[in-house]
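Annotators were shown the component list below and the corresponding predicted structure, then asked to write short factual statements about the assembly.
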Amino acid sequence: MSELYTEMTAGELKERKKLLLRRYDDFKAKGLKLDMSRGKPGADQLELSKGLNDVESYISDGIDVRNYGFLDGIPACKKLFADLMGVSPENVIIGPNESLTLMFDYICQCFTHGAGDIPWRCLPEVKFLCPVPGYDRHFTILEYFGIKMINIGMTAEGPDMDSVEEYIKDPAVKGMVCVPKYSNPQGVTFSAAVVERIASMKPAAEDFRIIWDNAYCVHDLFDDGDELLNIFDILPKYGNEDMLVEFCSTSKITFPGAGVSALAASKNNIAAIKKRLGAQTISYDKMNQHRHAEFFGDVNGIREHMKKHAAILKPKFDIVLKHLENELRGKGIASWITPRGGYFISLDVMDGCAKRVGELCKEAGVVLTSVGATYPYGIDERDSNIRIAPTFPPSDELELAAELLCICVQLACIEKLAG
Amino acid sequence: MSELYTEMTAGELKERKKLLLRRYDDFKAKGLKLDMSRGKPGADQLELSKGLNDVESYISDGIDVRNYGFLDGIPACKKLFADLMGVSPENVIIGPNESLTLMFDYICQCFTHGAGDIPWRCLPEVKFLCPVPGYDRHFTILEYFGIKMINIGMTAEGPDMDSVEEYIKDPAVKGMVCVPKYSNPQGVTFSAAVVERIASMKPAAEDFRIIWDNAYCVHDLFDDGDELLNIFDILPKYGNEDMLVEFCSTSKITFPGAGVSALAASKNNIAAIKKRLGAQTISYDKMNQHRHAEFFGDVNGIREHMKKHAAILKPKFDIVLKHLENELRGKGIASWITPRGGYFISLDVMDGCAKRVGELCKEAGVVLTSVGATYPYGIDERDSNIRIAPTFPPSDELELAAELLCICVQLACIEKLAG
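Structure shown to annotators:
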């Protein structure tokens, strides 16, 4: 007998449903309260960075980090992030406790003062390309500034570049958001060909800007992590140095609420950003910059540290993947990519079923990322994508949550198939 | 013989100049490199907050402060700042490492999205009232957003309210910046009458906003500090709850680069600010909030701590005031207010002489705040105001710098009088 739900008779589906409902009710009886909604590190991961607080010195390269000054960050921290992003320290600005703020502030700057001659606020329409599924907080920023978002499909190699190259012929299309390594939520790393194609784009808008959110640049689950080309090595070849600003942070390296963020950009962009920054702040928190520089020593310190995260995270990803394999494989109702890093597993269920899966999970005490959140305006037209965040729950809870999720996926799809 | 330079003969002035030049040349020969330009705490002040780093716990009221969440701050820190500003915790948002960023972001929000129905960016002109002399970084923010600044004279009781009440009849006048306690640079605390008059204003612009920068709210030099009325107690009487947002920080309580900032505002304003904040950040640095809440315990902890600052700062202010008294009193060329708190002494010299004083000081190795910086657009039309920042240099250096300053003031004025 085929395991494909799509080929089963009404009677067979009914039988399946009965079995699944029994399991579902057992789960409900447990009174679970589990959260797989956000990419939050677990408590054991936070313990890895305890040593940050042991940094007692206040002096970095002769600078008293407690006092005013150093708008773009202390040299030791600029060096650390420059090495992490593969650029020179003069192309780096150290930011506040998270890179989201750096991105918001940069988009805001383009809106109020522009990235070229004309502030975006002065234009009748500004559009951005958004590979989907993507990161909900990017979409929130763009929506806040009234920027029209255009969905771009994701392939296994990155954004659908044929589509991107078509859209950028429109001068109202001013930019694109990308999570180029272990993308949120699919875990896709942009291939060398895609990175080259992005770097070589010739958008109609001269002030086109790519938000290169390299949030998971060192967040490998395996020793041999994915390789992402350093796009800053390629951009100059096409005269595109100013087209892209890269962002990263230690939010998922040290502490999510108390990390250090950074951006990398061309000389022109750094100058434009510093102009705004000089009005916005005297300096970001240099004590925290110093703590991070001392704690890691250098970029290899970060890489070693990330291996400890991987040792905690890989088994959690494996738990979810095991349940997906056991319960959903071969049933024709769901597909997923096995990620090699990052923070999420992206699950695509039968069209029209994702919201129902979310409801069923919630009723049984498991919170998923709001279904639709991975799309601009919260609209997943196919109602198909579910973002699974396996990092926060302890393993025993994750086992339960993942099993329940698989039950709910099957129930929702059977409901749909039964009509 | 009168000591008034303004009544001396050419010969007498020439004689004075000769004596002063001799002293000036002696100073130059010392090869000094002193800085009285910015309101930076001295190293001994920074040592007072060493204990911040000893906070090892990560849990505040059951919250793991290392992880995501709590957009408006952790409860313990909200309580601390609520008590400091005399409002309820629900009227408080905890901000990043300095309040300047909170103010920039708030003005930016008014510009992009408005404080009322229409974003300020959509108006042909937006004007702000700026009591002068004032804080240069306020002016930088307003200038960045193209907001036209209007000078308002300061009296010994606060801004010239007759003038303010005239200007606010213009609906293009959208706000005012105030440092209500120990104002920067004069050290004036707004009188009860002025605070009441401000709270009762009826500006033509319904979306009028006062930036109430209470930067020096607990920065007394004397045990009996100046009393500033709590304007939040008065605003409701006039239906003006939404007209004002208060800002403060621990920049000059703990560490200038690594403090905690906060704002207090009405329910409506808090909601509007949170809407933007939810797009801009996940949370500010809660570890640092926790450190501050633990270090101080409660608002009395802050008050006790400030007495230690006063013990360091009062002698420094006294050094500068002593030189001003000894060298400039009774000569008809300079006036100043003796501040009872804050970070500055504001010195007014004969019209047309302040720039020259700055030059002479610089030539002899003492850097003052850029002359003119205390006025919008850097333009002090009378070329008269000099902001003295006595906090950063050690006392022995301050003695030298203050003496040199007095020499330079006399030299510049004699040059002017001699024509």
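Statements collected:
1. DSSP finds 13 helices and 15 strands in chain A.
2. The mean pLDDT of chain A is 96.
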